[in-house]
Amino acid sequence: MTESTQTQSKQSIGVALIAPGGFAPDEQALARGIQALQHQGCVVYDYYDPAAKYQRFGGTDAARVAQIYEAIDNPQVQIVLALRGSYGMSRLLPLLDMRRLAASKKIFVGHSDVTALHLALLAQTGASSLAGPMLCSDFGAVELSDFTMSHFWQCLRQPDQQLQFAAASNPDVRVSGTLWGGNLAMVTHLIGTPYLPKIEDGILFLEDIGEHPYRIERMMLQLQYAGILNRQQAIVLGDFSEYRLAPHDNGHDFDAMLAFLRAHVSVPILTGLSFGHIRDKVTLPLGVQAELRSDSNGFQLRFQNPFALNS
Fold first, then answer.
1. Which residue among the candidates 86, 90, 104, 112 is catalytic per the annotation?
2. CB-based burial label for 66 (10 Å; 0-12, 13-18, 19+)
3. Catalytic site residue 296?
4. Is the distance from CB of 16 to CB of 81 less than 8 angstroms?
């Protein structure tokens, strides 16, 4: 483990870097990400060793589990931040003591493949975590997104959160419930396992990348047939990007898929959430109570921040 610091103060935030899934393919992005965190007043504890990558992963399964435990055992760490997603978190779930992770009171942050950790923590301990930015793609971007950075730190430092999104063609909705979700493929992947929380009357948010509309539809139908969608108060879709339609789709595009789902799922489905594999993303806590209000002008999401860091 290496510690990267700048001039420390009483208000410095300790951030541990872990690679629960893929390794960092761009070492310049890794360096930029560390530097960006330092410039934002963080002390960085880097538990990732680029030389120890294994196959497509940021280390062997045992090594990646060790990274997580080292991070939570460091009393100077408040935030445990994933380098990136890709794949690999699923392999670690049976190897991790979720109660030990929750008892550490660390704030686990990431999205995509990290969704598996968020959901497992919520399912087995009720602990909240943050669906939000990651080191390589967000903090390590050539140009930081002011939107992403502002929402991330705001979510950590302000008790009351109120997010506003402009969106057309959404149904009128006035609901409250448990906020949960993340990457659609990972949520679907955990059906039938002890790592998927049983949420009643929830607000389920979903996003994905590189999934064709028919695959999105298929995964949504799997959630529907498993009885999960109809137990929610609302479903909020984030960004679904980087797919390519084929001639034989013959009009079955994202809008057609969405129309089909809205006709066959009794729960209201909203679009327009700024979350996913995109540059400008909000940060969302899983497991908190939230209020959702939607009309023809857009929708509003309100929740109480369960985390408290020094400003």
1. 112
2. middle
3. no
4. yes
Per-residue pLDDT reduced to its tens digit, 3-14: 654 434 446 899
Active-site entry in 151, 189, 212, 277: 277
Q: Counting beta carbons within 10 angstroms of the beta carbon of residue 311, is it exposed (0 to 12), middle (13 to 18) or buried (19 or more)?
A: exposed
Which residue out of 111, 151, 189, 207 is catalytically annotated?
Answer: 207
Contact 276, 208 (CB under 8 A): yes
Among residues 73, 110, 96, the alpha carbon closest in space to that of 195 is found at 96
Q: What are phi and psi of 64, to 5 degrees?
A: -75, -35
**What are the pLDDT digits (tens) for 248-274?**
999 999 999 999 999 999 999 999 999
CA distance 99 to 180: 19
pTM above 0.85, yes or no: yes
**Measured between alpha carbons, how far is 23 from 212 in angstroms, rounded to an integer?**
26
Torsions phi, psi of 17, nearest 5? Answer: -100, 130
Q: How far apart are CA 241 and CA 147, in angstroms?
A: 19
Terminal C-alpha separation, the chain = 27
Strands 130-131 and 284-285: antiparallel
- In the residue annotation, 252 being an active-site residue is answered as no
DSSP assignment letter at 22: B
Amino acid identity for residue 273 in this structure: L
- All residues at 6 or more sequence positions from 22 whose CB lies less than 8 Å from its CB, including other chains: 56, 57, 58, 83, 84, 85, 86, 87, 88, 113
Dihedral of CA 231/234/238/244: which sign?
positive
- Nearest alpha-carbon partner for 23 in 87, 76, 78, 73: 87
Tell me whether residue 112 is one of the annotated catalytic residues. Answer: yes
Residues 160/305, Cβ–Cβ less than 8 Å = yes
